[in-house]
Design brief:
Layout (H helix, E strand, L loop, with lengths): L3 E7 L15 H17 L4 E6 L27 E5 L10 H7 L2 E9 L1 H14 L3 E10 L8 H13 L7 E5 L1 H7 L7
Parallel strand pairs: 1-2, 1-4, 2-3, 4-5, 5-6
Length: 188
């Protein structure tokens, strides 16, 4: 059976995108995610939206406004939705099981926040031996007390580019580079 790719969209939820928590380049990040999601669906690859369930912290409680995905995301009925309970999207969730059932071996990772849930999920995906492609301008975060968001994103893209993978691979490409690679997907 053919190994498949999946687009992973982490924590693009209303509670993470407020006037108190402005995110770097969020409008363009959403546009890139929407475009990639459309293309993944055309290839019949899964699009998986991961939402933080912070019930234990009384934040991002399912079915509340903060928990909902951003209205600007173009979500389809064929997409998959999964709750997570920690920064790591794999921790005590059904992500591994879903990816295995769908025969997914390569993850394209996007979302929020670069330095928390995106980073933790990437680290976990590495030890689960996935092939990982990070969309370098497809994830976002907020300014931190000691570093502007743009520099946080730049730093993590550099870290991921220089990280040693396990059995899988880890690569970092921007949205335009990924679009150029996609025609080759027809050969697999």
């Amino acid at each position: 059976m053919e190994k498949r790719k999946a687009l992973i969209v982490i924590d693009m939820q209303k509670g993470s995108f407020t006037s108190e928590t402005p995110r770097f380049d969020s409008d363009n990040v959403v546009k890139r995610i929407n475009s990639l999601a459309k293309i993944f669906r055309e290839y019949d690859y899964p699009v998986i939206y991961i939402q933080h369930d912070g019930t234990k912290e009384n934040e991002f409680v399912p079915m509340t406004t903060d928990w909902e995905l951003l209205d600007e995301l173009e979500v389809e009925s064929t997409d998959l939705f999964l709750n997570k309970y920690a920064n790591d999207s794999f921790y005590r969730s059904k992500l591994s099981q879903i990816l295995s059932e769908l025969n997914v071996s390569e993850l394209f990772i996007t979302g929020c926040a670069t330095d928390f849930c995106v980073e933790s999920t990437i680290q976990s995906a590495l030890v689960h031996d996935y092939q990982i492609t990070i969309v370098s301008n497809g994830h976002t975060t907020a300014d931190r007390p000691h570093l502007k968001a743009e520099k946080v994103i730049e730093h993590y893209n550099w870290v991921w580019k220089n990280m040693i993978s396990t059995k899988g691979k880890i690569e970092v490409f921007d949205y335009d580079e990924i679009l150029k690679m996609m025609p080759a997907w027809n050969n697999f």
